[in-house]
């Protein structure tokens, strides 16, 4: 998976962990809004940082998440982007330009506003 594969779409690029309470809180909001915005050209990529497939699969199944969950097992992307703390979300427009970086948990209203901002 590379971001260039999503050119033409808005990308809600979220970095998270199963052990992160704000991450767990915002995931259902993200999933509900993904159902609405995926048909409007917004993609969610929720990159798990440094955890096992089993831990992530259990989390995804428990919350019935429908968006893609790429894995950053070795924390290479985390280090490349200089991400700290979790959750951190990058808002990327259809041209691949990072419009904003949100550090910390988000409300459902926040997430919807951000998706409107990156909608092509």
UniProtKB/TrEMBL annotation:
Keyword Disulfide bond annotated: yes
Any Gene Ontology biological process: cytochrome complex assembly
InterPro entries the UniProt entry points to: AhpC/TSA, Thioredoxin-like_sf, Thioredoxin_CS, Thioredoxin_domain, Thioredoxin_ResA/DsbE_sf
Single GO molecular function: antioxidant activity
Keywords: Cytochrome c-type biogenesis, Disulfide bond, Redox-active center, Signal-anchor, Transmembrane
Domain Thioredoxin, chain residue ranges per copy: 1-120
GO terms for cellular component: cell envelope
NCBIfam families in the record: PRK03147.1
Protein name: Peroxiredoxin
Phylogenetic lineage: Bacteria, Bacillati, Bacillota, Bacilli, Bacillales
């Amino acid at each position: 998976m590379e971001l260039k594969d999503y050119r033409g779409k808005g990308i809600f690029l979220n970095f998270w962990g199963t052990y992160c309470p704000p991450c767990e809180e915002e995931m259902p909001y993200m999933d509900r809004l993904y159902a609405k915005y995926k048909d409007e050209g917004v993609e969610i990529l929720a990159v798990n940082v440094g955890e096992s497939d089993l831990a992530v699969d259990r989390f995804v199944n428990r919350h019935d998440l429908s968006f893609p969950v790429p894995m950053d097992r070795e924390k290479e992307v985390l280090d490349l982007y200089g991400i700290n703390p979790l959750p951190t979300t990058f808002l990327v427009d259809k041209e691949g330009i990072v419009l904003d970086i949100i550090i910390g948990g988000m409300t459902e209203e926040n997430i919807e506003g951000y998706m409107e901002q990156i909608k092509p």
